[in-house]
Design goal:
With 158 residues, this protein is an alpha+beta fold. Helix content is 20%, strand content 31%. Strands 2-5-4-3-1-6 form a six-stranded mixed sheet. The chain binds a DNA duplex (12 and 12 nucleotides) through residues 9, 11, 32-35, 55-56, 59-60, 114, 131-134, 136.
Length: 158
Amino acid sequence: MSQKFWLMKSEPNVYSIDHLEQEKVCFWEGIRNYQARNLIRDELQEGDLAFFYHSNAKPPGIAGLMKIVKNSYPDHTSWDPSSTYYDPKSSEDNPRWFMVDVSFIEKFPLYVPLQELRDHPGLEDMKVLQKGSRLSIQPVTLKHFSIICELAKSSFSL
DNA sequence: GCCAACGTTGGC
DNA sequence: GCCAACGTTGGC
């Protein structure tokens, strides 16, 4: 089993890297897209690393780093009628949506805005830069991971 | 707030 | 299974 790298989007006005820094650990709730669900359910593994991406932010960009600390399990918010993530087609018996637990590693010393990713040689083929890319969980290559940690002046080392 | 790009739904 | 209508995402 080898460690993989991911980029996970969240709108900071809903849940930001600062929230995660305070809480230390959280469950990544509210994934309601099948492609992202399949990645969460089947690919994200305990020990993997993930960038915390601020979407719908000014500017959007990568804010920090976290680690997957629990493999996927059913997203209980999907069968909670009081949750904004409620989905009547999901049930405890037949869960449709899944989530993982993540833990805070670092808020980057330097925020890496989307535009900087666009401008930086070597990152051109990142998924998040592709036109119309809406997937909220994206795989990241080791090469891209390393470049971005450097841009962010991260103290984290593999 | 606009709107392009996707994803989902549902009639047929 | 097609596809039009509708809904959502997310940068700008």
